[in-house]
């Protein structure tokens, strides 16, 4: 048995995909409430990818994005990162804080706090999906935020996971707004023991 | 015309003058740039982790500060560089996210820089410049013609070291 995501079967990936779908549904509902406007989303794209490929999906390693990082503990150990493209971050802040920003340089401390809170809610939506399906108790740490080159932000989960492998669970969600669509991305990196625990409870043990 | 050679993550390569080695968006990773001025042979590694001995999966020697540095020197020596002439410049090793109590993962940039300095010191390779730490990502371009390391970041523009 290889101790990483590459060893997962199609069935197991389907189960993880379903967790992603439920989480994404929760997230869209919450986002609608927070922004006080209807938010629709496309079917989330859940896949197992090489962490090095993610920077390209995010528009290249030097593209500026927002990364919000959480540690998972209690029944599940690991790391979760919520990534927003620039356009999405502006949309949230402009709607939520009643501002009219076009550049990350204009972000103030309060805007970063608002983004962290959104990250918290979105990450919580996925964590609740896992908890709900497995009855496992998962503690989400306080969020840490960074706005920088995608590659640099990704180096943190890449390094953390690089000790065991290079593949991660990657969930891409497209939200459909009134006039433009925006994407968010979630990287889930459970410790391998925790991943096995989830799959075992869901009846698709390796 | 100089050619640009892109180095990925956990990757390394060497170049001869006038070519340029580039690696994008070093966050907590460290870019190790080695140069032999006499023969104009340059090498650049983009390492992710400090020591190969600490990892379960050691299959990629380019991932670790210790094994990548040794490999880089070997490749440079094959191109005529001499270990006693090689000097080093290092960049990266940022702490991208604010530290949370008890989470070592957030401090990996610093550990990467310490391990890189240690291995270079053990090999008697002098570090002549560095741009490390802080909390931002860096792209580096290393000229095999001049040995100049150009460090680019979103927040702080371009630095040449």
Describe the structure.
The complex is a heterodimer of chains A (206) and B (161). Chain A has 206 residues and is an alpha+beta fold. In chain A, 46% of the residues lie in helices and 27% in strands. Chain A contains six helices and eight strands, in the order H-E-E-H-E-E-H-H-E-E-H-E-E-H. Chain A has helices at residues 10-35, 51-57, 86-97, 109-134, 150-162, 192-201; strands at 40-41, 45-50, 64-74, 78-85, 138-140, 144-149, 167-176, 181-190. With 161 residues, chain B is an alpha+beta fold. Chain B has one domain (4-160): 60s Ribosomal Protein L30, Chain: A (2-Layer Sandwich). Helix content of chain B is 18%, strand content 37%. Chain B is built from two helices and ten strands. In chain B, a hairpin with a 3-residue loop joins strand 9 and strand 10 (157-160). The longest helix of chain B is centred in the last third of the chain and has 15 residues, at 108-122. The two termini of chain B are 23 Å apart. Classes of the chains: A alpha+beta (206), B alpha+beta (161).
Task: Look at the helices and sheets of chain B and give the structural class.
Answer: alpha+beta
Determine the oligomeric state from the structure.
Answer: heterodimer
Strand percentage of chain A? 25-35%
Gyration radius of chain B (Cα, Å) is 15 Å
Provide mean pLDDT of chain A, rounded.
82
Brief synopsis:
Helix content of chain A is 46%, strand content 27%. Chain A has 206 residues and is α+β, with helices and mostly antiparallel strands. In chain A, helix 1 packs across helix 4, helix 2 runs antiparallel to helix 5 and helix 3 crosses helix 4.
Features:
heterodimer, A: 206 residues, alpha+beta, Chemotaxis protein chec, 8-stranded antiparallel β-sheet, B: 161 residues, 60s Ribosomal Protein L30, Chain: A, 5-stranded mixed β-sheet
